[in-house]
Structures are given as C-alpha cells and as structure tokens.
Protein 1
Amino acid sequence: MSKQEQEGAFQRILVAVDASRHSLAALQAAAELASSLEAELHGVFVEDVNLLRIAALPMARELRFPFTTHARMTPRRMRRQLRAQAHQAREAFSAICRKCQVEWTFRVVRGSVSSKLLEEAAEADLICVGRASRPVMQRTKMGSTARAAATEIQQSVLVISQDTRITAPIVVIDDGSNESARALLLAARLALETGGFLSILVPPDTSSTPEDLQRRLDKHLDRENLLIQYRELASFHVTSIIRSVQDETCGLLIVSRATLEREEIGRLLDGVACPILLMG
C-alpha cells in the first residue's frame, strides 16, 4: 500500500454534473476536497439517451411551468435543451474550480446516466454525486444515479444533498481494520480542515481502545489541533449507526465499504441526511 493510500488521499476526483442544485452541491464539495487534497477534478455531463427516446414519442409534450401551456416535444428540441444544460454545467464547473484553484477537465457524453457514470468512474478514485438530480418534489429522495454509484461502484463515493457543505464535526466509523484505518486518517485530515472536531464511532466488539486509535493517528498526523470524541455504538448494525449519527450533529460521515453489506449501504443512505463518504 502506497503512502497516499495509507493516508486515505485521492488523486483523481470525478463529479457528475447536471446543473441541478444537488449536483452543484456535489461539485462544490468535490472542488473543496480536491483543493485540500491537491487532487485533480474531472467533471462529466451525461446527455440522457432516455430523454431523447421519450422526446421521439408522438405523445411527448413539454409543460412550460408555471404556466399551463404545453408544446410538442421533439428530439431536436430535447438535444437543444441538453446542450444548454451542458453549457450551464460547464460554466458552473469552471467557475468553482477557478475559485478553489484546482486543476480540472470537463467532458460531455451521451448514454444512460448510471451506465456512463459507472464507465467514467473506472478512471477515478473518488466519485462525487448529488443525492438527487432534478427533483420534482420538495421532499428529497435518493436518486437512481446516486444509489447506483453508492452500491455498484467499488471506488470511494461521496453523496451530498443540495444546500449542504462539508463542515464539522467529521464522523468516522473505525473497527480497527486496515480498511477503516484509511477512513480514520482521511477523517482526521478533513477534521483539521474544518475546525478540528473529529468524532469516532467504535463498534462494541472492537479490540481498539481510545489509546490505540490515538497511536494510529500519531503515526501520520499532528493531533495537537484535533479535538477527538470517542463513542461506542450500541451494536455494529446499520440501524445503530443511523441512530448514532442522528443523535449528534454530523458534517460528514465516513465509513469503509468493507464494514457494510450492499443492502445496508442503501439503508444508510436513506436513513442519514448528512453527506456520506463511502471509502472504497
């Protein structure tokens, strides 16, 4: 394992952008992470082929909100709208990257959103997605793209909602394994960037003591500016994790994928509103 892997750092961060408020929140978080970790940021806008197929149907109509008028939707009109959205997404992407002073690239691809994201993710070691894209209801539900990224991509994935920033405290689950060690070290680095408050959730059956965790951090970081809180989980079940996170203010939850089954990841995403970073 390289020194960078040991410290949980990322070199190439991919963010899916579609100009929605959720994806822009993911972009802001990704740019700030890239700046803190000195990583490259790569943006992708997917022209959804399913929208183009729908637009080709004879009954396809465009409802012009907030008015009650509608117009015939055509593939040509849909392509024009997608190009406009891609341009808007690129402008937002470049502006935020310049502000955060990070190296960046941006590309537009066409296909199924989830499938294309999975393809693009092969070249990245962190993927950032909005919790939902283009929500039509006020209540936010997990979008299909975010769920696919969180459950099907093996790399690290950050899921974040609109109007949300990564702030203190940084909460991390540590069970003493090598996988969770990377999550712990990254959490400590991000805690230093966001005010120095780190909260560590420990399973009840772990052999690690607070002193063990402190020694592990001392090998890589200066703990002098860290305020660390240790909390023991009632059980190492996803319900207990959700309850513990809900009981305290959480700016970012970091958890290793190795500690959860696929269906548990889905339940965690549905049960926790704060940003979640799943370490691959």
Protein 2
Amino acid sequence: MPTSDCPNVTHSAPPLPSLSVIIPAYNEANRLPPTLRRIVGHLETRQAPYEILVVDDGSKDETAEVVERLADRHAQIRLLRSPVNMGKGAAVRHGMEAAQGDLQLFTDADGATPIEELERLEAAVSAGADLAIGSRALASRAAGFTVRAGWYRSALGSLFNALVQRLGIQGVSDTQCGFKLFRRAIARDLFSVSCVDGYAFDLELLYVAKRRGYRIAEVPVNWTDQPGSKVRPWRDGLVMIRELLGVRRRDMFGFYHRPYRPAPTRIEPALAPAEPSHF
C-alpha cells in the first residue's frame, strides 16, 4: 500500500564533467601526490564539474594506495587499475575510454607542464581546433615562456622531431609533450583505432589525426624537466621511430581508414573539413 506520510524525494544525478583529466601512472607514489593536489586546487577555482582519472599501470609501489587516500578526500578523483604494466599508451587509452568529459586532457604524473597551462589549450579548441597539444619547442622560441630541459635532452629531441617530420607528421614541432587536449568525439575516434601501447602512442594519434584531416593546434606551454623520468632518450627514441614505421605500414593496409568524421554533438560545434614504458 502507498504510504502518504512518506516524503517525495527525488535524487538527481551529479552533472557530467565538462573536463576529464587522465593521468597515466607507473610507480609514481612519490611524484603523483603534489601533481594531483595542484590539479585539484586549480580546477576547484573554475566552478565547473570535472573528473580526474588516474590509471595505475601495474605499479609495484604504493601508487594505488596514494591515489585512493586522495580520492577519499576528493570525490572527483577516480582510480583505474591495470593488473600488469602495459605501457603509457595503453594507460592513456584506458583512461580516455572511461572519461566522460566534453573535453579530455591527458597529462603526465610528474606535473612537468603546470595545469594552469590548460587555459591556453582550451582557447585553441574554442577557436576551432579539434585537438590542442602543448609544445616545448614553440615555447622555447617565444617570449614569456620558460622551458627548463638539459641540453642533451633538447638536442636529442630536435633530432627526433626532424626524423618524425620526414616520416609523416609534418608541421608539428613537438609530438611528445605530455599535455594534450581533445574534444570528446575526437578522442573517441582516435583512441578507438590506436594500438601503440608505449611512448609512440602520441605519434600514432597525431599521424591518424592528420590522416583524418583534424585540425591540430600546437600551443606553447611552460615546462620544467622533473627528476625521476623513466625516459631513456636514445633507446626509447629508436623504439618510437620503429613504432612510427609500423603506423605507416598499418596505414598502407587501410587500418586507419574511415570514410566519415564524428558528427557534432549538442555541445561541440561542427568541425571544419579538414615495449611497455612510461615517462
């Protein structure tokens, strides 16, 4: 029997996030907490719903426990776990597949690019870009930006980018900065066909984005090299070049071909024509 004395209570679902931040993490128990606190502190000032997805890629330290403790205090933080180390590309893909934000950013656990640089990428997307990528190369040549990197890493990065340009990603001077923002439909499309699990996943995404005719905005950002990087410049650079050659072969066999672009959603404007490792 209905009970007239019971109040009529309606439970409303929380609003979907306007922004998703994806952070791949492998053995980052020490570097991740200050990065997460800075991201939460900044996003809380924006008064817009957001989520932070930390993808623990089979860490052997206390990365998961650290994230869970922070998630207890900040409901916007969510932990995703992989039972084994699959690689940075696989971790980012896992996070992107779970993300719900209208805009989706992936950033590194070390906080080398400050979260405050997000507004620069958002401005580029608002101006019509399908994806906006942080660029240390542009920042190093522009007034008002700071890029702190050792000369050895900078020299190898310049050589690497020259090879990448010759192998099919023309017009992008910094493919590897771990600070990239996507419209949701674009992220869904690109990550649905991505299969590179290691560092070269950025190269695959940008190669396919150009193949699709998406508009890529390269945006200068402040960046500071952080201690504890897992990158081995010579070895990982050679592996990434080999992976890019594999991307080109897959493209030749039609792996990335698709006859349509994602349809615009109610929120997004119509688009113009257009080996496991971690940082």
